[in-house]
Amino acid sequence: MRRRPFLDQRRPSSFKRRWQQRPWWFRLAVTLLLALACLFLLLALRGSPDPDPVVLPSTDSSRSAATTSPLLHQRSYLDGVTDAFNMTDEMLSAHSFSRQLMDQISLAKTYLVVAKEANNLQFAAELSSQIRRAQSILAHAAAHGGTVTEQDAEKVIRDMSVLFFQAQQFRYDSAVTIMKLKGQIQSLEEKSKAEAEKSTKYGQIAAEELPKGLYCLGVRLTMEWFKTTELQRKFTERSPAVQSNLRDNSLYHYCVFSDNILAVSVVVNSTTLNSMRPEKIVFHLVTDEVNYAPMRAWFALNDYRGATVEIQKVEDFTWLNSSYVPVLKQLQDAATQNYYFSGSGNRGTPVKFRNPKYLSMLNHLRFYIPEIYPELRKVVFLDDDIVVQKDLSELFTINLNGNVMGAVETCMETFHRFHKYLNHSHPLIRAHFDPDACGWAFGMNVLDLVMWRNKNVTGIYHYWQERNADHTLWKLGSLPPGLLAFYGLVEPLDPKWHVLGLGYTTVDPATIKEGAVLHYNGNMKPWLKIGMEKYKGFWDNYVDYSHPLLQRCFTH
């Protein structure tokens, strides 16, 4: 992998985005706290005694010095303030009743908020009444173009002062108020955190569930397969030409490993429909025992513009056993089973890190592609949650410059660098990998299988999987071990080849339009009800909902 200098390219609007994502009651509490702090600071400054004026002797020499001193010719800071805010003499007068009433109203409003927070409704009502009285006097004076007289203001100022004294007895002073608000903010933050954890948990559950329509489709396809011998013959009695296509390196070979029939169908359909030479496309599909028959039935029932489709099941790869595959060996360990399946492991670990799908062999089968297809030299690996929008044949002619993989880098943000995925406090990780190295994405990857075999990438993957048996190097998925296994062996591709984020975030429409492959990485897959509606259309374009089986399963 070509090393690039670290550039912190975080978007300047990240603080604004995080602030807007906070709940409304949290933003209100923070705003009140800041307002209180500013108000008490202004009151403290206003209440500070002025220094005694220095009386200069009235002599000719002193007057002469005053007129010649350059310091006395400078305007004071207060002069600038009064000019800037157009303050009137009444506002600046120490004996102005209007100013006293305005100051008392401001302070009373602050105490009013605190009284309501303390559930002291009677005191809050008295404050509200006095505020209205003071405002009425000011409004009357303004309407008649006069000033507030002592007779009008004396009783209101006196009554308000009594309430302020009472507020002090209630401990409504600035320090106590700020401490109370801090406590409330902390409580709100804890509630917000708890709600966020619930949302993550429920979102994860929704993402892991199999929609009723997909379950129905699998059942009906299984019935079709076993009752229709003609469908079975399409795969068992293939012509020699089709068999030779599976090993012909002049064709375009794609790999997809999945148990989702409809998702794989969209990948194949979108790839062939956007290809200029669909007859040269070969899809190598691998699924599990449960979906093997319905997957074959679906692709026997449908034609994809002459593309060749091979379907295998992972259970037939008998060499993938616990003596060879570290992931399968770890599954036999009681601690690993407890961590991933019982949920009784480390309670501080987020629920998504204990998702059993990340130990599925279909998820880790990507690290054994050269052994599954020993006669192939170059393939393009595709995830099942992608949609192809452009012709991908150019990928097979890209020069990888001696690297094993071509991938789109994802380090436009700092959280997609190595330190996000790996535990760099571990000495093994710290000694071998740069924490600021650029991450990349699985989902659309060009693989040079000849270089893969020469570099023994699968062996490197095994080494790091064995070191992570205790989950201390990384916690989640197949990407972290991929970053380690392909470290220094990745050729960066143009970002237009692989557009990510349609399953969890907002993506620029121009980027989507130019993208060759759209990836719904994240929990909000397009076939789920929690999928993002604005992006579902790109996926639905390649689903033929008029198909009889889809009509039966997806029409309620």
Automatic annotation (TrEMBL):
Record PANTHER family: GALACTURONOSYLTRANSFERASE 10-RELATED, GALACTURONOSYLTRANSFERASE 4-RELATED
GO biological process: cell wall organization; pectin biosynthetic process
Enzymatic class: transferase
Compartments where located: Golgi apparatus membrane
Main subcellular location of this protein, as a coarse class: Golgi
Matches recorded under SUPFAM superfamilies: Nucleotide-diphospho-sugar transferases
GO cellular component, one term: Golgi membrane
Name the record gives this protein: Hexosyltransferase
Family classification: Belongs to the glycosyltransferase 8 family.
Keyword tags: Cell wall biogenesis/degradation, Glycoprotein, Glycosyltransferase, Golgi apparatus, Membrane, Signal-anchor, Transferase, Transmembrane, Transmembrane helix
Enzyme Commission number: 2.4.1.-
Entry's Gene Ontology molecular function annotations: polygalacturonate 4-alpha-galacturonosyltransferase activity
Pathway: Glycan metabolism; pectin biosynthesis
InterPro entries xrefs: GAUT, Glyco_trans_8, Nucleotide-diphossugar_trans
UniProt organism field: Oryza sativa subsp. indica (Rice)
Membrane topology reported for the UniProt record: Single-pass type II membrane protein
